[in-house]
Each structure stands twice: as structure tokens, then as C-alpha cells.
Amino acid sequence: MPITFEHVSYNYNPADAKKRGASIPQALDDVSLTIPDGQFLAIIGHTGSGKSTLVQHMNGLLQPTSGRVLVDGLDLAEKANRRAVRRYVGLTFQYPEYQLFANTVAEDVAFGPRNLGVDEDEVQRRVRSALDHLGLSYGEVGQQSPFELSGGQQRRVAIAGALAMHPKVLVLDEPMAGLDPQGRIEIMQHVHELHDELGLTIVMVTHSMEDVAENAQSVLVLNRGRVFMHGTPAEVFSHAAELHDINLGVPRATKFADELRGRGFPLPPDIITLEQLADAIASRIGPRTKEQYLALMQAGEADGGERRG
Amino acid sequence: MDSNRMLVFGSYYATDSVLHRMDPRIKLTIAVVYMITAIIAVTLQGIIPLAVFTVVAVSLSNIPWRELFNSIKPLLFIMALAAIFNIVATNEGTLYWQWGYFAISSGGFYNALVFTLRIGLMLFAASLLTLTTSPIDLADGLAAIMRPLTRLGVPVQELSMMVSIAFRFLPTFLDEYYKVKGAQESRGACFDQGGLIKRLKLLMPLLAPLFASAFRHAEKLAQAMDSRCYRGGADRTRLHPMSVGRADVLALLFTAAMVAGLIVIRVFW
Fold it and tell me: How many Cβ atoms are within 10 Å of B135's Cβ, its own excluded?
């Protein structure tokens, strides 16, 4: 179920734009890209760069003012195609818990599959399975009102609601926004599993470069509605200065590695995760290899410092 | 869906002009006097003072005539209906045609013309008021005029605050409405299809989240206002105090002249 954008531009107010001419800033400007089946794509960009607008084109909620969007070859310009695509491309907005409405968690998660006309037994199976994938127990929360749950739990119910549709692509707009650190780790983990275990294509809008580095296979960088960069995380994060110019950062590990290199400490390129950074540094300090150092630590003869797990 | 969606609420047209800067209390008062004058003007010549007043007011407001006509458009249909009714139901002056209770006469045309002009001018005045006064100023002006009612126990200031808050949140709720609608559509809900029952069932997924959001906003706003020592009541002052200036006095005099003109015309013409 690949998704293709062909020269997509989007304007909020086309009539206004015609009047004021080409000087009107476009929400999306000539965006072209293809998301192959099963990819984990992260979308990053400054606030207002068009990320939310872009992802809403992926399931047909918005249509381009020029250009076209194809999902599995189907042009979303046709209403019938848009309807059909909702089954396969699931989308959650920012703060998706604000869409919860039903009397019980189970009823809310069931909303999606029921709209698809799935028979009731299957609906119940999907509800349980979706909640399970997000780390929620049907027995514990299934019959509770969604408004009684904590913010993190509500967030998971909302994502489960999209998952219960059994989509092939899951588009998440800042799924970790506003969560405490533990909540962020848990949601990221669940999303990662959805990609690994269920083989879903994941499109994730995020501001956390660390999450991008750890999970994404491809990164799309948006700037003022235009595609600024599109490549693997290693490729994209090797351009720290350019990213900085458009108000974006790089993962902490990359920043640290860049600093070290700047001060003359030799490190290989393409360091984007903490693991890689630690390995690279460890293998260069002293005469010991990483394996020797680890062996020493286990024997209790390490020279100071705590090993962080 | 898009927080950039342009919305003009209460049809306020943001520009700078003499009218925009006038005290809202004065504008409200003049609008009411104008309406009453329009009701009293029943002859074609009686409309002259109204028309003159309106033309002067519009030119002082820097509002393009196009905007005024746009604000009247929704009511044109009703005006046309009323005019037609006037034409066929009046039997005065020269009779052209009759059939039972229906009669088309010169009197009918005259009445229709006067009626249309009067209603048109009244609508212009109402539009001019809302085009040159922001909803918050309108609410404040109204509250100031109704302040004597507080002696009767009416919580005028609190009511005015409620109206202002409601206006302030309308764009917010519209935004959230589009978000919730988009979220439910993403889960397969079709809001533009199906019979009555189906659409009624879809109200819950739309309204419940909006109500929940209203309560959330209310709680947060209440806390914010509380922590800034809001106590309601009549002791509140305004950042830009309403003050009657020279333009206001001149406007009042001009209004008085209009009324005087009408009276003179009614008596002598």
C-alpha cells in the first residue's frame, strides 16, 4: 500500500490566493514523495511547516489544490477512493484523546470497525486485540468510561481506535505530545512493535530527533511547506548546520559526537543514537576494546564510573 | 482542521475610521434612535433624512459599499416577498387591476418602494453597527448601558463577561469541531451520507468530544481568571476606557438633526 505524492500543493484559501497572487505562502508547496510499503517514515519540521497538513492528505481528509495523491495507485481526487482508503490508512491527530466520546472504552474502540461494517464478533476480537497492542487490558479498562482514564491511557485508547480498523498504514501526528517521559517511552515502544510485528507502514510526525534516530528508516524534513530533505536518518542528521538554520535540531548523540569531533576527537560519521556514541567512544579510549572493558566491569575491577543500563 | 481558517465573527470589518473609534455606547444609542426614526418615516420624502444620514455614516466608516450589500444579501429574499405583498394587497390611488382581494394599484407600488427603502436602510444601519464595532466592544457597550439594572439585582457585568468569553471561544470551538470531525471521518464515519437516523447517531461522536472540550476550557479559564484575582462585579475597569469624544457629540447632534428633519417633513410636507 504505497503512498505517492505528485507535486502536491495546498492552500487554505484558494480564492484569496488567486486575488493576492503568487506571494501567498502555501501550506504545501510542490511536495513529491513516495512512501513504500512497510516503511517507518518520520516527518520533522518547524511549527507551521505543513506537517499536519501533509499527513491529512494521506487519508483523503484534505485534497491538494494542485497535484495528486495516490494510495496503492488510487487517486484520492475521487470521493469513492477516499472512502475506500480510510479502511487502509489510519490517522490519529495530535492529542487524539480529545476525540473520545463513547460510554465505555470498548465502545469507542469499536466505533471504527463498526463503521466498516465488520460483523460484531470480529469487532469484539479487534477491540481486544487493539487494546492489547497498546498495552491496555480489556478486563481492566474495557468497561470504564474513557473520561475516567489518565491522559496516557486515553492516548492509547485513541490509537487503539485507529488500530482496530486493521489499517495497512498508520499515520500518527505527534503521538507522544504532552506525555510524561515514561508515557513517551511506552507509546514509542508500542508504535515500534506495530511496525516490527504487524508490518504496518508507519508515518510519524515528531519533534523528538532521538525517536527518529531510533525508529525511523526514512526521514522527511519539511520547511515552509516544501520538502527540504528526504533520506535516511544518518543522511539527514549529518547536515546539522542546515537543520539548525531551519530551526531543527539533531539527536543529542549526534550533537555530542559533532562537538567531540570539533575538538579533535576522532569519531566515525553517522552517529545518531546513544548506543552508537557509547560504542564509538568506548572503542577509542585507552588500549581496551569494548569487550575487554565490559569483562573488567563484570569482574568488579572497572576504574570508576557507573555503567548506565 | 486548519487553525488558519479565516473567520470573521459578528461580521466585524477591521479597519480604522471615525465610526470605528467612536464610543460603542453612543453607537448603540444612535442605532436605536435610527431604527425608531425609520419606523416613523412612512412617506417617500420622510426617507430623505434617513438616506442622507446613512450615506454620510457609510462614507465616514471606510467600509466599502460592497461589504454592506453583502451583509444584506441574506435578507433580500424576504424583502422582495414583502414588497410583492405590498404591491398586490394595497388598493390606493390609481387602480390598475383587481381580482377579488388582490389589487395592483399605484398606491401599492408606492408602499412597496417606501417599505423596501425603509427596511434596506434599517438593515444598513444594523450592519454598519456590527461592521464598525467589535463583538467585545458591543458587549461592553451594552453592559455599560444596562448598568443601572444592577441595582435591580441583574448581574450585568457577569453577563457581559459571558458574552465576551463566548465570542472569544467561537473560533476555538470551530477549529475543534473540524478536528473532531476529521478524527471520526478517519475512523470511517460518513457525515454527508445516510438517512436521518444514521446522521442523528453520528451526532454523539461529534458533540460529546466538543462538550468535553468545553468543560476542559471552562475549567482552565476559570483557574486562570481566579489566579488573576477576578471577582466579577462592578469594580472592574477597562484597559481602554470608553469615553465620549468630539466625534461622538457631533454624531449625536447629527442624529438629532435627522430626527428634527423627519418631524419637520412629517408636519409640513
Answer: 18
Chain B CB contacts of A127 below 8 Å? none
> What integer is the mean pLDDT of B168-188?
91
Helix (H, G, I), strand (E, B) or coil at B103: strand
CB contact under 8 A, A96 and B183: yes
A27 with B2: Cβ contact below 8 A:
yes
Cα A65 to chain center, whole Å? Answer: 25
3-state SS assignment for residue A112: helix
Cβ under 8 Å to B: A residues 13-52: 13, 16, 27
Nearest CA in chain A to B177: A99
* Distance, CA of A88 to chain centre: 17
**CATH topology for A3-232?**
Rossmann fold (3.40.50)
- Between chains, do B187 and A62 touch, taking CB under 8 Å as contact? no
Nearest-Cα residue of chain B relative to residue A108? B205
For cell 543500563, what's the residue? A309
Model-level pTM?
Answer: 0.76
Helices (H), chain A: 14-20, 51-56, 79-85, 105-115, 120-133, 138-141, 151-163, 181-198, 209-215, 233-237, 240-245, 252-262, 274-282, 290-298
Q: In chain B, where are the structural domains located?
A: 9-147+242-268, 157-227
Helices (H), B228-245: none
Nearest-angstrom CA–CA distance, A77 and A159: 27
State how far the alpha carbon of B162 is from the alpha carbons of A183, A250, A309, B150, B166, in Å. Answer: 37, 46, 55, 16, 6
CA B182/CA B178 separation, integer angstroms: 6
Query: Considering CB atoms only, which of B176, B187, B190 is closest to A162?
Result: B187
List pLDDT tens digits, range A223-262. 999 999 999 999 999 999 999 999 999 999 999 999 999 9
Tell the burial category of B219 from Cβ atoms under 10 Å away from its Cβ (0-12, 13-18, 19+): exposed
B184/A99 CB distance under 8 A: yes
In chain A, where the domains are located: 3-232, 253-306
Say which residues have a Cβ less than 8 Å from residue A12's Cβ, sequence separation at least 6: A27, B2, B4, B5, B6
What is the enclosing helix (H) or strand (E) of A76? none
Q: Enter the ipTM.
A: 0.83
Q: How many CB atoms lie within 10 A of CB B145?
A: 15
